[in-house]
Specification:
The chain is α+β, with helices and mostly antiparallel strands. It has two domains: 96 residues, Arc Repressor Mutant, subunit A; 163 residues, Trafficking protein particle complex subunit 3 (Muramoyl-pentapeptide Carboxypeptidase, domain 2, 2-Layer Sandwich), CATH 3.30.1380.20. Helix 2 crosses helix 4, helix 3 packs across helix 4 and helix 6 packs across helix 9. It is elongated.
């Protein structure tokens, strides 16, 4: 009805408006990409860079660079720092990226300062993992399978599992991605302790729903060569009567054998 009243002029106006809107969106996307390139270059630099250096390197006009630097300053992503003049004269204005706070770095520094030997550090880290799980307040379990519960809880915290098996009451889970990977590079025993304490707390808190109690061991996966890839075992505890029978035939100093390397590993009980 509107087209009959105004004729083809209305159609042309609508098409022009649509084309103009698309052009604006493209220009905005282009500016965002340019700003990201400026910020990436500043983050990779070991010292302050001025607008002319950024313009020459990124092949952008210096006015465009100054526009993006102004925006980055307003967002708090960069700050200014004087650059010594190459010749006699006033120092040039340089820009450096503001380093984002890394809680991983903070935890790594704390982990490096835990005293004692490796076994003692792992035990202390176990207590930390236990407390951490309590602070997180993970939601109630939606399953009665211990392995599925552990995987579900770990995934909520950024862990990824590669494989999971269950045989004769023992759940075996392989961790392939860990949010504590940077800490594991220098202090793998600390990360194993945190993982064990975390998993043990999750299973203990849901023992009633699972209908059983479990003891957790965490051992390094020697096949991968990475410090954060570990084997996690959740062994179902026997009933009191079976525990008494087992105590009469088993040595109290039994050792668990690592499945990938055949190396004996001390079994740590909480």
């Amino acid at each position: 009805m509107g087209y009959r009243a105004f004729g083809p002029f209305t159609k042309v106006t609508l098409i022009h408006s649509r084309v103009t809107g698309i052009a604006k969106e493209c220009e905005l996307a282009k500016r965002v990409k340019q700003r990201e390139r400026v910020l990436d270059m500043l983050r990779e630099s070991t010292g302050p860079l001025d607008a002319h250096h950024l313009a020459a390197t990124l092949d952008l006009h210096v006015t465009t660079i100054r526009f993006h630097l102004s925006g980055l300053l307003d967002e708090g992503l960069v700050r200014t720092q004087a650059v010594p003049a190459e010749k006699v004269g006033r120092p040039r204005m340089g820009y450096i990226a503001v380093k984002e706070p890394s809680y991983t770095d903070l935890v790594a520094l704390l982990a490096a300062r835990i005293g004692g030997n490796a076994a003692e550090r792992e035990l202390k880290a176990f207590e930390v993992g236990d407390d951490w799980a309590g602070m997180l307040g993970l939601p109630p379990c939606s399953t009665t399978d211990a392995g599925a519960l552990v995987i579900e809880s770990l995934e909520q915290l950024g862990f990824e599992t590669q494989s999971a098996t269950n045989a004769f009451g023992t759940h075996s889970i392989t961790l392939c991605t860990c949010p504590l990977a940077e800490i594991a590079r220098r202090n793998p025993e600390v990360v194993r302790g945190i993982q064990r304490g975390l998993i043990q707390r999750v299973l203990d808190d849901h023992a009633a729903a699972l209908g059983a109690s479990y003891t957790v061991d965490v051992l390094p996966d020697l096949r991968t060569g990475t410090a954060w890839s570990n084997w996690c075992y959740a062994r179902r505890e026997a009933s009191p009567k079976r525990q008494q029978l087992a105590a009469t035939v088993e040595s109290p100093r039994a050792e668990s054998v690592h499945p990938s390397g055949g190396l004996p590993a001390r079994k740590i009980r909480s």
